[in-house]
Amino acid sequence: MAASRSDALVLFGVTGDLAHKTIFPALYAMVKRGSLNAPIIGVALPNWSLARLHKRVTDSIKRSGGIDNRRAFHHLLTLLKYVSGDYEDPNTFTAIKKALGGARRPAHYLAIPPALFEMVIKGLGAANLAEHARVIVEKPFGRDLASAKELNHVARTVFPENSIFRIDHFLGKEAIMNILYFRFANSFLEPIWNRNYVASVQLTLSENFGVEERGAFYETAGCLRDVIENHLFQVVALLAMEPPSDSDFGAVHTEKAKVFQAMRPLKRDDVVRGQYAGYRKEPGVAKNSDVEAFCALRLFIDSWRWAGVPWYLRSGKYLAETATEVVVELKAPPQRLFADSAPMTSQSNYLRFRLSPNSAVALAARVKVIGKEFVGEQRELYLFEEQPGEEMP
Predict the structure, then answer these.
(1) Quick check: 172 pLDDT over 80?
(2) Is residue 288 located within the same domain as residue 180?
(3) Cα–Cα distance between 234 and 53 in angstroms, integer?
(4) Same-domain status, 40 and 129
(5) Which of 7, 43, 182, 207 is the most buried (most CB within 10 A)?
């Protein structure tokens, strides 16, 4: 039997960064498609008026691409309600229940700091707001294995397993989903997608700005926990996984899990951590903080397909540009037939997945330049490109 459709969205952390950058534009897109017509109850601590929340939503949508459908935009605003309150206060959950009105199957979206997950889930249970409801928990799900198990226990005490959604919003982006499609919808890639032809794989998620007003949160996570062990590891799994039996999410998850199991434990020499100048002066950051604002690591996947191939992951703040991409570098031809295609040059063939700020898939190949000499240059052949899209967090 198909699951009942949720009849309301309770958005915890509605005044936060994630809601502003990602969730509001997504809700606007849903309204434009006609797939969202349920009340949205925003919950947060600040004592905001509904007018101020409307202003926040307006700014978010203007920044993400603009208001191109006034009717849908105004309809989105009419769906919004706001509840101000402390998550430790039972009265906050009483106010949420009142704001829900006749809704009986709400979806509770926890776009809040991870330290508050357990408190909110317990609050929902104590207020009888979990029956027939769903809970959506944003990454990171726990700080380590022990805390993840504890949070999982709490969630399953309040909600049934099929009503708990542990998500990483990064994976819903078109450019990410295209990696899975591109790999297994094309036959030319599979023969070379292994240790015999791939020299290395590099993943970069760089940002040309600092932690801004998220210093206190960053102190609890750091670059490694914030984006590498979730966002970038998930991309690694999509690139390294074996072909699933079908496109069902369960089959895909099974193959991705095998990649994580095959990852070799990191050693000290495999990781570099750093801070940008001025990080310790950011609001909310400890004066003697050793939390990394930049992290790079080298990992190996000890599987038949990838044995010996290094994977390089890097991410950080205040880097040269804001961009997210994957470069799969191929090995040089086995014979040095032409001098400028010799091994160890910087002109190796590669496949590049550009994920943001625009989306593209490109193949770099060498072609001969005009003249009698056998000299060439490397050019990129674009296989897929689209207009600038979603901002990567």
Answers:
(1) no
(2) yes
(3) 33
(4) yes
(5) 43
Q: For 194-244, how does the pLDDT look when each residue is reduced to its tens digit (9 = 90+)? A: 999 999 999 999 999 999 888 888 898 899 988 998 899 999 999 999 999
Question: Higher confidence at residue 250 or residue 324?
Answer: 324
Strand order in the sheet with 376-386: 271-274, 294-300, 310-316, 198-206, 323-330, 350-356, 359-368, 376-386
Q: 306: which residues sit within 8 A by CB, 6+ positions away?
A: 194, 195, 198, 240, 262, 300
Instruction: Write the pLDDT tens digit of every residue in 133-163.
Output: 999 998 888 888 899 999 999 999 999 999 9
Residue 130 is part of which domain span?
A: 8-167
Distance CA 170, CA 143 (A): 18
DSSP 340-376: GG-TTSS---EEEEEEESSEEEEEEEEEEPSSSS--E
Q: Are 157 and 335 in contact (CB under 8 A)?
A: no
- Here the CATH number for the domain that contains residue 235 is 3.30.360.10
244 and 215 in a single domain? The answer is yes
121 Cβ contact list (under 8 Å, min separation 6): 110, 135, 154, 155, 158, 159
User: Among 378, 379, 346, 381, which residue's Cα sits nearest to residue 361?
Assistant: 381
Whether residues 190 and 336 fall in one domain: yes
Whether 73 and 182 share a structural domain: no
Residue finishing a domain among 136, 167, 198: 167
pLDDT of residue 38: 95
DSSP count for the chain of H helices, then E strands: 11, 14
pLDDT of 2: 44
Report d(CA 204, CA 79) in Å as an integer. 38
Distance of CA 323 to the CA centre of its chain: 13
Closest CA to 169 of 359, 32, 23: 23
Residue 109 falls inside a structural domain: yes
Residues catalogued as catalytic: 231
